[in-house]
Design brief:
Elements: H1 4-12, H2 17-24, H3 28-35, H4 43-52, H5 57-62, H6 81-124, H7 137-149
């Protein structure tokens, strides 16, 4: 509700214009002018609307806060906050589930890969019981030269 006229119309609700005007002690044409934003109600009319219909003055004049006195207000940007929080909590729970599933799949794949690689890694490793000794290159060369001389 952007204007006082729109807010007055909302206060009137389904009540006939002439009935609402009678309660306020004004002519129905004057009320129509207020509701259509062609005239501005004076402070007495605004006060009467607030008192007779339990409307908050801040809401009627400024368009801020709750419509009715004693009603708790939430700013427009906070309306529906609990629904948004619930929706975000559901998304977080879904993402956490997916993350846990992904982690579990990664662990299973790692275990499978390391299990399959284990025998191959044993083959590639040289057992400690086999020792290969290499003769110095000079010795091999000198032995082959001696064989040729014979």
């Amino acid at each position: 509700m952007n204007t006082i006229g729109e807010r007055i119309l909302l206060v009137r609700g389904k009540m006939k214009q002439y009935e609402f005007a009678d309660i306020l002690g004004i002519n129905a044409n004057t009320l129509r002018a207020y509701e259509n934003n062609r005239a501005m109600p004076n402070h007495k009319i605004l006060y009467d609307i607030c008192v007779k219909f339990s409307v908050s003055t801040d809401w009627l004049i400024l368009g801020e806060g709750p419509m009715y006195k004693g009603e708790r207000s939430q700013p427009d940007d906070l309306k529906g906050q609990s629904e948004r929080i619930s929706h975000l909590e559901e998304k977080i729970a879904t993402l956490e589930e997916r993350l846990m599933e992904s982690q579990a799949e990664t662990i299973r794949a790692y275990k499978l890969a390391t299990t399959r690689m284990q025998p191959e890694s044993d083959i590639l490793q040289k057992p400690d019981s086999i020792k290969v000794e290499h003769a110095p290159v000079k010795q091999i060369y000198s032995e082959s030269s001696a064989d040729e001389k014979l």
